[in-house]
Design a protein that fits this description.
The chain has about 400 residues and is mainly alpha-helical. It has two domains: about 30-230 and about 360-390, Rossmann fold, CATH 3.40.50.620; about 245-360, Tyrosyl-Transfer RNA Synthetase, CATH 1.10.240. It has 15 helices and five strands. Its main location: mitochondrion.
């Protein structure tokens, strides 16, 4: 793929000279670095699906970032308002998630961590992009269609009932595009289920650039998150979710070792005596194997022979074979290894989280630092956007 990230840079002053040099010599593109943007909604303490599907990857992106890379990770509080919220609970959820992001290893000196609602420019750019967004395109978004299908299947409506469908939910993919484009993102870490949203973002960037006759916004590329969707421990037909009525269906990052052990013990498996990774015929067992592999094997590293590659522990099929050969190969051995691995990895995270809970002043300072860093870039972007739209000289 060509270096689309370079084409959208603001072609003014020093950037113009850098762009001209880059086009003459594509090999110097790496000197600009990547701009990586991602967000997560504040819906309470994250569970393993959130951690393995997104947050753990954020830390890895941060730790492997080049000196010229810029990373923006935000708590998507505006997006949380697309469904009804309890105000006091939302406030707590925002604080808890901020503490979680620091506890898992995100470093405010290496990346920008901020609350979306502290940066009003997101909403402003979202409005400008909404004015350019085709209504029919948003109607075809998967999230919107699934919301209508859910209401229809519940028997609440036979057709679209305007009192049950909110504009915020309909238009939030445009705000999501604004979140990304605001920072001139070159890369966005998302799962396969978010590909449609990134395609909309790219299309809106192209539409804006054509409308203002300027290659202003980048066309961000997708970074596929390495971990697949983590499923419910109690129902492998559904993804792990905080809204599921059965608390045993999910493991929260703050769960105690006793709670983790109890939930893993109650996780569904099957009656086949040996382990294998088969997502079609053995979804429950495969889900547990996938979780174990996503933790990089944990205690299973001790079972490796010296000649074996430890990177294989990220392969669920290899993990299944290792358990079969050296740890009994039963559902019980899988659950035991999984419990010990989760407890071991979450222990330092939980210790840091509980320390941060009592450091309100420190969390406030982190939020303010992130806000200041984010708004500095936002104001630069929005000054140019307003000029291009004729709202400013």
């Amino acid at each position: 793929m060509r270096h689309l990230s370079i084409l959208g840079r603001i072609v003014t002053g020093h950037n113009q000279r850098r762009l001209a040099s880059t086009l003459r010599n594509p090999e110097v593109n790496s000197a600009f670095g990547r701009v990586i943007v991602s967000g997560i909604q504040p819906t309470g303490i994250p569970h393993l699906g959130n951690y393995l599907g997104a947050l753990k990857n954020w830390v890895e992106l941060q730790n492997k970032a080049g000196v010229n890379d810029k990373l923006y990770f935000f708590i998507a509080s505006f997006h949380a308002l697309t469904v009804p919220q309890n105000a006091s609970q939302l406030y707590r959820d925002r604080r808890q998630l901020l503490a979680t992001l620091i506890a898992i290893g995100l470093d405010p000196k290496k990346c920008t961590i901020f609350l979306q609602d502290h940066v009003p420019e997101h909403a402003e750019l979202g409005w400008y992009l909404m004015c350019m967004s085709p209504f029919g395109r948003l109607e075809r978004m998967t999230t919107w269609k699934s919301k209508i299908a859910t209401l229809q299947n519940s028997g609440n409506i036979d057709h679209v009932n305007e009192s049950q469908l909110q504009l915020g939910l309909f238009a939030y993919p445009v705000l999501q595009a604004a979140d990304i484009l605001m920072y001139q993102a070159t890369h966005v870490p998302v799962g396969d289920d978010q590909t449609q949203h990134l395609e909309l973002t790219r299309d809106l960037a192209i539409h804006f650039n054509r409308a203002v006759k300027s290659r202003f916004f980048h066309l961000p590329e997708q970074i596929i998150t390495p971990s697949k969707r983590i499923l419910s421990l109690r129902n492998p037909d559904q993804k792990m979710s905080k809204s599921a009525p059965d608390a045993n269906s999910r493991i929260l990052i703050t769960d105690t070792p006793e709670q983790i052990r109890s939930k893993i013990k109650k996780a569904v498996t099957d009656s086949i005596p040996i382990l294998s990774y088969d997502t079609v015929n053995r979804p429950a067992v495969s889900n547990l194997l996938q979780i174990l592999a996503a933790f990089d094997g944990g205690i299973l590293r001790k079972a490796l022979a010296s000649s074996e590659d430890p990177d294989q522990l990220q392969n669920p099929s290899f993990v299944a074979q290792l358990l079969n050969d050296r740890m009994g190969g039963s559902g019980a051995s899988l659950k035991s290894a999984l419990t010990d691995t989760i407890v071991e990895e979450l222990r330092p995270i939980q210790e840091e989280y509980h320390r941060l809970e009592n450091e309100a002043g420190y969390l406030d300072s982190i939020a303010q630092l992130g806000c200041d860093k984010a708004r500095a870039q936002c104001q630069e972007t929005m000054t140019e956007v307003r000029k291009l739209l004729g709202l400013h000289n």
